[in-house]
UniProtKB/TrEMBL annotation:
The lineage of its organism: Eukaryota, Metazoa, Ecdysozoa, Arthropoda, Hexapoda. It comes from the Eukaryota. It is found in: Secreted. Keywords: Secreted, Signal. InterPro entries: 6-blade_b-propeller_TolB-like (IPR011042), MRJP/yellow-related (IPR017996). It comes from Bombyx mandarina (Wild silk moth). GO terms for cellular component: extracellular region. Gene3D superfamilies: TolB, C-terminal domain (2.120.10.30). Its main location: secreted. This is Yellow-f. Coiled coil: none annotated. Pfam families: MRJP. Belongs to the major royal jelly protein family.
Length: 311
């Protein structure tokens, strides 16, 4: 039962005053519409845009603060993948056909446009589009190829929510079937499984991660709530069913494929490995000689290792 139509409610967080309430026009809300997530592009206050994903009737409703107007954009990348509609969470198997769900905005480029990273929930793929093509419906309709397929998370890896940390450029996203939260560094040109990191995975505490955000103090926040158990089973009131996780972003991505910090310990391991390899080679070539090697030999070996890894 719908008591009130979908609306954007905008507050001044310093005063808690309601600045504006914008009700989505009737022609932009369909019979099966459901707006679960919203991404806000607000680097220029007057030219703030909001992007609301319609998971029930695939589309993005774009709202302009300056114009106090909105428009509805459709694309086949917003649709659910029929091969990715089967879910299994904590022993409960079900089928969902949720369309566009995860929305994450990058920092703006030189032209003040962001990249919107998005995906349907019933999907294994991540997509992207510049907001240059969303801020005007005519431009969006005339540039259907502006949306790009980035790549896949792999089998059984459907994702609900996502969020981009604009400082590090890391995209965080949930993996609802795997009880996990993963990441991808958007500065990486290739969206491959080996370039994606798992930052947390737990079959008890991370059941159905349902919201992800990064605050202004560079902390990552994650909410898990066991929604499928409530829908298809029964919550055990003696257990903890709702959890909020938090960690500094740099700690969360440390030692993953998304790590952005220089890793002196990794270099140390390579140097030690190079020394050991050099000693083995010298021992084989001159069995009776000392295994002490000159620094140049170690450096040459390390250089070979680095070239090998780069390939």
């Amino acid at each position: 039962t719908t008591k009130y139509p979908p609306s954007l409610i905008i507050y001044d967080l310093k005063t808690d005053n309601l600045l504006r309430k914008y009700v989505f026009p009737q022609d932009q809300v369909k019979e099966d519409s459901g707006f679960a997530n919203i991404a806000v592009e607000d680097t220029d206050c007057d030219k703030t845009y909001a992007y609301a994903g319609d998971l029930g009737k695939p589309a993005i409703v774009v709202y302009s603060w300056e114009k106090n107007d909105s428009w509805r954009i459709t694309h086949h990348y917003f649709n659910p993948d029929p091969l990715a509609c089967d879910f299994s969470v904590k022993g409960h198997n079900f089928s969902w056909t949720d369309a566009i769900f995860g929305l994450g905005l990058s920092a703006p480029n030189a032209d003040n446009f962001s990249t919107l990273y998005f995906h349907p929930m019933a999907s294994y793929n991540e997509f992207s589009v510049s907001t240059e093509y969303l801020r005007n419906q005519t431009v969006a309709d005339d540039n259907f190829d502006a949306s790009k397929l980035l790549g896949s998370w792999g089998p059984n890896a459907q994702s609900s929510v996502s969020f981009v940390d604009r400082k590090t450029g890391v995209l965080f996203y949930s993996l609802v079937n795997l009880n996990a939260v993963a990441c991808w560094r958007t500065s990486n040109n290739k969206y491959l499984m080996k370039n994606q990191g798992r930052i947390y995975m737990n079959e008890e505490t991370m059941v159905y991660p349902t919201d992800i955000k990064v605050d202004y103090e560079d902390n990552l926040w994650i909410l898990s709530n066991r929604l499928p158990i409530w829908m298809y089973g029964k919550l055990d009131l003696n257990e903890v069913n709702f959890r909020v996780f938090s960690a500094p972003v740099v700690h969360a991505i440390s030692h993953t494929a998304c790590d952005i910090t220089p890793r002196s310990d990794i270099l140390e391991k390579f140097v030690n490995k190079a020394k050991n390899i050099t000693k083995d080679i010298v021992a084989k070539v001159k069995p009776n000689s000392s295994t002490t090697t000159k620094p140049i030999t170690v450096l040459l070996t390390l250089s070979c290792l680095v070239r090998f890894l780069a390939t």
